Amino acid sequence: TEFFRDQLEVAKSEIDEIDRRLTALRIRNAGQMPDQADALLNRINTLETSIQSINSSLNRVNQEKLQLETNLRFLRQQATEAANAPASAAGGTGGGA
User: What is the rounded CA–CA span in Å between residue 94 and residue 97?
Assistant: First the structure.
């Protein structure tokens, strides 16, 4: 039985060493292990979907910005015309009486 105990201790030590080496390998190659490939692909797909959503939102916001800039130019033009109109109207009606 002493022989078997010794063999068991040797086997446990070997298993512990293999576990330590495997842990070190996983740490050094994080993200590159075959069992992580599916998780990484899912993360990539999620990120790509997020990018597409952000790009769509950005395009929509840019369109709204262009529309608001057009409206602002129109309103500024109307304000300028309105500011000039009373001066023109006052100058034209004062000399006819």
Answer: 7
Give dist(CA 89, CA 91) in Å, integer.
5
pLDDT tens digit sequence for 40-78 = 888 899 999 999 999 999 999 999 999 999 999 999 999
Question: Could you tell me the residue ranges of all domains in the chain?
Answer: 1-36
Q: Three-state DSSP class for 6?
A: helix
CB atoms within 10 A of CB 85: 10
- Cα-Cα-Cα-Cα torsion 87, 93, 94, 97, nearest 10 degrees, comes to 180
Q: And the tokens for 47?
A: 């990120």
* Dist CA 47 CA 22 (whole Å): 30
